[in-house]
Amino acid sequence: MRAAYYTATGNPDVIRVDEVPTPEPKPGEIRVRVAAASINPIDTYIRSGAVSMTLPRPVAITGTDFAGTVDAVGPGVSHFRVGDRVWGSNQGLLGRQGTCAEFVCVEEQWAYPTPPGVSDEQAAAMALVGITAHLGLFQRANLQAGETVFVNGGTGGVGSMVVQMARAVGATVIASVGSEEKAALARELGADHVVNYKADDLAARIRAAAPAGVHVWYETQPPSDLDRTIELMAPRGRVILMAGRAARPVLPNGPFYVKGLSLLGFAMFNMTADEQRACADDLNRWAAAGKLRVPIGRRFPLKETAAAHQLQEENTLRKAGTLTGKIVILPGF
User: Fold this and answer.
1) pLDDT number for residue 82
2) In which domain, by residue range, is 216 found?
3) How many domains does the chain have?
4) Are 266 and 136 in contact (CB under 8 A)?
5) CATH number, domain with residue 300
6) Fewer CB within 10 Å: N-end or C-end of the chain?
7) How many CA atoms, within 13 angstroms, populate the side-chain half-sphere of residue 2?
């Protein structure tokens, strides 16, 4: 099969696309013919060596998310059959092979049925970002109907999912964006209030939209100003942190505990299969009902996976602003 892989960490140009052995499913695994994969920042961090993880040898195939069709099952598989459409995430992590390939073998606990009417592109694109958004909102913050959510970066991969999921359960959503184009998209996704952080007074706009304070602050960027965040929170509010490995923000201790706030961090790949399956069940239900869609910014054929990594890095690390939505890899092209 053809796959996008690397043998040593480094810049995007370490990625090669060539023939590698087609994997055979082990006990408890399914083999998926990949119709779509997607690129996430974590893929670039692992490939560059910025995040140290055990890599498969002799080649490490990149890619976390996938969608496609089961074409073989290993001994003991009970939930899927050949021909089933499936999607999932958690590949390319912790020693598992990635998804930017014609086939990937996946433990069935990390795979979910693709609902009728949901395309493979959408299923792959929503995988990591959707599960991440859900974990933060519900498993960590226990978001309730009627509460107010602020999400920093409302049109990013995770942020766009936060907007739609919060709206799906009856929360009020405030989203920050960096351009008028992104403001229009955030409103289209369901944000009740949109703030252009480059043009508006962010704190003043949030106070106007949430005079009683924000109940859940979903921080998708490395936190830098917890003073402002805590000032804008409602009593017993929850702050979600899931980015910024090197960030060292100052915590204003007094205001934090007097308000009874919670600071909740998590990394998706540390959450259990059962915890993530609960997320996938809601994602499937909302996607099938048309309440969840993923903006797709660029599509690349498998042979251009290195260019996809380059584009992701330019926007994640260097804030180029040239990408709105997810990057999808299409192994069949």
Assistant:
1) 98
2) 129-268
3) 2
4) yes
5) 3.90.180.10
6) C
7) 14
Q: Is the pLDDT of residue 333 over 90?
A: no
Q: pTM of the predicted model, to two decimals? A: 0.97
- Per residue in 115-141, pLDDT (tens digit) is 999 999 999 999 999 999 999 999 999
The answer to whether the beta carbons of residues 77 and 49 sit under 8 Å apart is: no
Q: What are phi and psi of 322, to 5 degrees?
A: -100, 10
What number is the average pLDDT over the span 5-20? 98
* CA–CA separation, 72 and 82 (whole Å): 6
How far is it, in rounded angstroms, from Cα 160 to Cα 21?
A: 37
CA atoms within 13 A on the CB side of 153: 22
Residue 277 lies in a domain: no
pLDDT of residue 191: 98
Indicate whether 244 and 307 sit together in one domain: no
SS3 content of the chain, % helix, strand, coil (to 5): 35, 25, 40
Model pLDDT for residues 236-261, shown as the tens digit of each residue? 999 999 999 889 999 999 999 999 99
Residue 274 lies in a domain: no
In this structure, the answer to whether residues 141 and 77 fall within a common structural domain is no
Q: What is the pLDDT of residues 144-174, one digit of tens each?
A: 999 999 999 999 999 999 999 999 999 999 9
Per DSSP, the three-state class of 57 is: coil
Rounded Cα gap, residues 61 and 129, in angstroms: 20
Characterize the bridge pairing of strands 2-6 and 103-107: unpaired
